[in-house]
Specification:
Number of helices: 11
Low-confidence stretches: none
Strand content: 5-15%
Largest sheet: 6 strands, mixed
Number of strands: 8
Radius of gyration: 21 Å
Order of helices and strands: HHHHHEEEHHEEHHEEEHH
Shape: globular
Distance between the termini: 40 Å
Length: 339
Amino acid sequence: MSESCVKFLLTKIHTRIQRKDTLLRSAIPAITKLQAVLYFLATGCSLRTLTHIFRLGKSTISEFIIEVCEAIYESLREFIKIPTTTDWKIIENGFQKQWNFPGCCGAIDGKHVVIKAPPESGSLYYNYKETNSVVLMAVVDYKYCFSYIDVGCNGRVSDGGVFRNCSLYQELENGVLPEGHVLVGDNAFPLKEYLLKPFPGNRLTLQQKIFNYRLSRARRTVENAFGILAARFRVFEKPIPYSPEKVVKIVKTCCALHNWLRQTKLQNRQYEYTVDTENFEEGAIVPGNWRNEPQSLGMQRLPISLSNRSSQRSTDRREAYANYFVGSGSVPWQTRMIH
């Protein structure tokens, strides 16, 4: 973040986090609170390290971290709100022009955000990776921004239950997407009329391989968004030592800051992360520079869904897309990319 970026953010949250001086002591300046929290989110350092850097008590820092996170999220909510009908149309046009995938309103994925087991929680947050976690479920648009997030589902739920236990599932079931539009996801999700996933297995026809490539090309937006999020905010590098309720606030703040930095021109472009690109001539994917960062141990993939049951209408919709991608919707390089 550039200096002007920090100043701009400070003006938006100053009144929320600045306390008044008393006769006994002076209040901690709002800029100091903001700097400490941004340093914590960016590095994931311990409270002891923050104590030495900012010359504040450990309990004091621990208390205002969540206060500042709440203020940041509330002030940036306009950058991470549920899309309106007009917004869905803009996103759909973006996927069609940039990723050659008509009718797509976003790419969906989820991550287990690793936490330290809360006291007396038993196995409530214990997941399949043998860690404790809460689930971050997100829909990402064509510009690598989060258009919908759901945080807080405990990591214990089964592979099929992770998606069904998120509020996003009910929103999709109730028709939050425009009629006839879809999201794209991987094999961690069930096949639905509003949610397309790849054809499973290795013995696929040419048409199925092309569909899987076209879908993975659009779905790469969410993979890159999560990658940049984890690379930029190293608080996800290891288990977050806070209660699940506080972790939810930290995660939401990081997502809001991610969107804000990508949608504004206040950030320092010299340090901006690049995304995956494609070399159509050689049929290869050029990795973004966020992949050069050390792998984050604080974010884990969702397990592959074992559910094979899907409605005939869901299967028909996937087949219709597969036919379209080898017909009028084909692109010149797709056969080269699948080989």
